[in-house]
Design a protein that fits this description.
seven-stranded antiparallel sheet; globular; single chain; Chemotaxis protein chec; 30% strand; 207 residues; 47% helix; 5 helices
Length: 207
Amino acid sequence: MSILNEIERDALTEIFNVGAGRAAQSLSEIVGDEVRLSVPSVEVLRTGAIDERVLPRSRGRFATVSQNFDGPFDAEAVLLFTEDRALSIVRDMMGSQMSLEDLAEFEREAMCELGNIILNACLSAMADMLEITLNSALPQYLVSSSEDISMRLASAQGEDSFVLVLHIDLVIEKHQTDGHLIFLLSSTSLHALVGHVQRYLGKIGLA
């Protein structure tokens, strides 16, 4: 049985696309060129059900930016890009003329900035549209294997936990890449989130 029905899933997709639009505007100002960011799909999985679509083992290591937040529900948000795509994003943000050595030097700083913008934009959109208050910690950057990330997610909240998975399409200077933003939630926090989404749908006449 699906935890989110179609209307609830569409509502969350809409909320996160509002956040993606805000993030794209901020990134455009930094890059000095058009940035397009969208969230075409949202799904909920049990933590143990994260599969090759989200963490393909064949793609090597992943660059992750994670951030804890709390409010009516608590979660850890993790922005995921394969390491090669992360380096490509940094190149587009910092300037395509930079060498790989110079790019690697700025990778942590640039990815933390990217993650901070995307995560905070999505959280602020969720807070605004659901009329709640969310408090967030500073983002943390880490490069890990898919196995390490899977174990980290599985141990973070125990067996009774879920992940809200957002597919992300990002275009900077006409270079397209994709990644995932996942929210790790306990069963209690997930049901609290669904309750706020249902309340939001009721206010706009779709419940």
